[in-house]
Amino acid sequence: MRGKVPHIVQYQGSKRILAPQILQYMPKKFDRLIEPFSGMAAISIATAYEGRAEEFLINDLNAPLIDMLQEAVECPQTLIEDYSSIWEEQFTYGEEHVQHFYDVRDRFNNGEKTPANMLYLLARCVKGAVRYGKNGNFNQSPDKRRHGTNPRTLASNVYEISHLLKGKAKF
Hints:
Blueprint: H1 19-23, E1 30-35, H2 42-49, E2 53-58, H3 63-74, H4 76-89, H5 97-109, H6 115-124, H7 151-165, E3 169-170
Parallel strand pairs: 1-2, 2-3
Helix pairs in contact: 3-4, 3-6, 4-6, 4-7, 5-6
């Protein structure tokens, strides 16, 4: 695989590291890639990066995750701007910035399952590990050592992923 394949955030269980090995078993060119358990769509992104497929069907049981990926591909500027606002907001909490994560998580669990809220939770939670309780609520804790991915870093990857998949991906 030439160069560095973009990714949005660290995600436990991602196939991003394994993608070069997985792609060795795939044809060099094909019409459509179906990724039914996509997570962060690492295989679709790597395949698009290599220019191997013309169409991508990306799906996952985690609907807020798919909504976030769809917005990253179709409306990257909106996702980045909304994420930036949430990310910056945590600094208004001062030393209590961890409480900001819990506040965003509460909003998410109370129905505000926006792509930007999902992205912030992913960027800030422990080891990028998505966890839901029996009641369906996101229940992972924040990584207290860091503030999540800086929006400037995130923007570069999101725009590149959008460039690779826009007009080619269906969710």
